[in-house]
Amino acid sequence: MLKIENLSARVAGKDILNGIDLCINAGEVHAIMGPNGSGKSTLAQVLAGREDYEVTGGRITFEGQDLLAMKPEDRARAGLFLGFQYPVEIPGVNNVYLLKAALNAKRKAAGLPEVDAYEFLALIKQKMKFMEMSEAFLTRGVNEGFSGGEKKRNEILQMLVLEPKLAILDETDSGLDIDALKIVSKGVNSLRDARRAVVLVTHYQRLLDYIVPDHVHVLSGGRILKSGDKSLALELEQRGYDWVKASRVA
Amino acid sequence: MSATPAALAAFAAQWRARTVDALHPWREQAMQRFLRLGLPGTRDESWRYTNLRRLAAVDFVTPVEELPGTAPAGLELPAGSPPEALRIDLVNGYPQPASLPKLPGLTLRSLRDQTRDDAADLSARLGAPSDSEQQRVALLNAALFVDGLHAIIDGSLDVPLLLVHHTRGPTPNTSAHPRLLIEAASGSRATIIEWHVDTGVGGTLCNSAAQIALAPGAQLEHYRIFSAGPAATNIDSLEIRLAANSHCKQFTVALGGALLRTNLEAHLDGAGAELENFSLLVGSGARHVDCLNIAAHHAPHTQSRQTARAIASDTSRVIFNSKVIVDAGAAHAESQQSSRGLLLSAGAEIDTRPQLEIHTDEVKCAHGATTGRLDPNMLFYMLSRGIDRATAQSLLVYAFLADVLTGMSSRETRAAVEAQLISQLPDSELLREFR
Fold first, then answer.
1. Of B269, B292, B310, at which residue does a domain stop?
2. Superfamily of structural domain A2-249
3. pLDDT for the residue B98
4. pLDDT per residue as tens digits for the range B283-323
5. Minimal Cα–Cα distance from B392 to chain A, Å?
6. Enclosing domain of residue B422
7. What does R_g of chain B's alpha carbons equal in angstroms?
8. How many pairs of residues across A and B have Cβ atoms under 8 Å apart?
9. DSSP state of B5
10. Best residue in A51, A53, A84, A93 to probe B by mutation, most B CBs within 10 Å?
């Protein structure tokens, strides 16, 4: 589904990614872990098409298409979704409008008619219930006045409505209490199937107790230093990232 | 200004040519002062951003009165204007229909009739012509207005009063000077919308002036909306006097014209008076919008809040000056000034200048002014959800104005302003479904 080859990228004149290779197949869940400043969020933003992140080398194919040649909105319509580490507040733009516009943009790209307003509201309400979100969400501006946990839940709600092929969740677990973590995990797990893939960017092994990954990668210094199965995450939890860096040098 | 600009000579000629009416002594005082001061220029502090050179060269003429009863059919209602409102058209200041409607709690009279019938009473109500620099063009209005409306509100009005100002004439050098006098009696409540359009030939000058007086406890929501055509000039002078515990919510909405200058001078005269002022200033094309709002606190426990949102695209320029004055006698006054500007193109310019002049210690005054471009984080968030750039930008622009739009208590008026606004924003057709 997604193939990243020798990707390097620069932010504000500084090289952050230095040759990433990663292959993600449909049906898989990948966890990308790594210390602060290792390039995890940069990778997520580059995949979503953030323009002020300069790709300096390599290539990415998504479903056979050259992802780097696609505009951010086209990537989204093609089925790529980024769950933001820090979802922005957009006062004055209603949550529901945003989501409806997003869904319709995707449907239009797929040659489908616009979603019926009543059906859409019913769908939203159903997903909100599943994500245990308050009705206040319907009338508020995008993420306006939401707590950190509510914002993350909103990201997952958007994901559930948009049903992406590839979801990249950037530290969706940070700032969540244990109950919210369970709800968010439930949301992600509900989307898991053989046609989709999920990339979890996280600092902590804890999330992986709830969303069990097929592959775990350690990112450091803008490179993937080590890949393994879920046991790698447990090992990292016990031994820290220095152990990976040390073994790499050795 | 140079020796004798054509416009000044033309206004002097208009003054000499007019029929002397019972307000003549009052008018003469204003005209003499205006002629002595001349047209405002960039040397004048409150006019430094607005150059009237182009206007100064115009040989302005007074439009002839259109026959009552013939005009309204040809008068367009501004798109989306509130259907339920009690509508009066003022054609170059002349009220239409000539026989003004009556509503419980509302008395309407033509200023011309009142000048004829009781000039002494009227000149007392109008007061001495203002001396202040920023009200200079109001002096010209005082001298030259031929008609206008006097509204007395002494009850609770269920529907808004919609006053549509039409400036029209056979030639672009037409100038009109409509005048309004609005008196809100103690305990009254009303919504008044002044809507400026130009019909017929473009390029006209409308130099309007309104005086609003709120008696103790009166509540008024006042709108002045400018949506004249792309060649029009509007200069509007608004004076609001607030007695004790009165409350005025005032909206200034700039959506049209080539050159628009709005003055607001609000005097919080009585203890506990409150002014909420909202300015929504949209610059597009080569439009020049210059908005000056002054809130003067003269009494204790008075409050003023000013919220301004300015957008400028293309090569337009928007200026927002606000000034709060707190007199020595206005202890415990509170004021807030929030002005934000959004630049949508490299050729556009926004100037904001919040000012404070405080003569007592016991006050709470806050102000903030920012100007910037669309937030790239917000934009990327929307793009990452599959929303195209044009729609995302339009939504963000719209959202930027939300603080003013949500302040509008009159839902109908808000809808009307939104309808006009949407047609002004880039890629605005994309926004319709989001309303």
1. B269
2. P-loop containing nucleotide triphosphate hydrolases (3.40.50.300)
3. 76
4. 999 999 999 999 999 999 999 999 999 999 999 999 999 99
5. 9
6. 375-435
7. 21
8. 79
9. -
10. A93
Residue B283 domain-assigned?
A: no
Number of domains in chain B: 2
What pLDDT sits at residue B414? 87
Q: If you average pLDDT over residues A43-61, what whole number do you get?
A: 94
Task: Give, rounded to a whole angstrom, the gap between the first and last alpha carbons of chain B.
Answer: 46
Distance from CA of B381 to the nearest CA of A (A): 7
Question: Can you give the residue ranges of every domain in chain A?
Answer: 2-249
Residues B245 and B384 in one domain: no
Quote the ipTM score: 0.96
Question: Is residue B429 within 8 angstroms of chain A, CB to CB?
Answer: no
CB half-sphere exposure, B115, CA atoms < 13 A: 21
Same domain? B258 vs B382: no
The answer to whether B29 and B56 have CB atoms below 8 angstroms apart is no
Question: What integer is the mean pLDDT of A87-96?
Answer: 90
pLDDT band for position A248 (50/70/90)?
Answer: low
Instruction: Using alpha carbons, list the distances in angstroms from residue A3 to A62, A222, B59, B356, B384.
Output: 7, 17, 72, 60, 20
CB contact under 8 A, A87 and B398: no
For chain A, give the longest Cα–Cα distance. Answer: 61
| B387, B239: one domain | no
Bridge partners (DSSP) of residue B268 are: B242, B297
Quick check: is B320 in a domain?
no
* B307 within some domain: no
**pLDDT at A146 exceeding the cut of 60:** yes
Domain final residue pick, B210, B237, B269? B269
| Average pLDDT for runs of 10 along chain B of length 435 | 76 91 92 89 85 85 67 58 83 86 92 93 88 83 94 94 89 91 97 87 88 98 93 95 98 94 97 98 95 97 97 94 95 95 94 93 91 93 93 88 88 84 66 50
Q: What is the largest CA-CA distance in chain B?
A: 68
Other C-beta atoms lying within 10 Å of the C-beta of residue A244: 21
Check if B373 contacts A (Cβ < 8 Å).
no
pTM (2 d.p.)? 0.84
| Structure confidence at residue B72 (pLDDT) | 46
Of B375, B376, B384, the CB nearest to A82: B384
Residue B284 and residue B292: Cα distance in Å, rounded?
A: 19
The predicted-structure confidence for B121-137, as pLDDT tens digits, reads as follows: 999 999 988 777 778 89
A35 touches chain B (CB under 8 A): no
- Whether B263 and B381 map to the same domain: the answer is no
Q: Are A163 and A193 in contact (CB under 8 A)?
A: no
Whether B75 and B222 share a structural domain: yes
Is A48 part of the contact surface with chain B (CB cutoff 8 Å)?
yes
Substitution target in A73, A84, A154 with the highest count of B β-carbons within 10 Å is: A73
Interface test with A, best of B338, B385, B431 (most A CBs within 10 A): B385
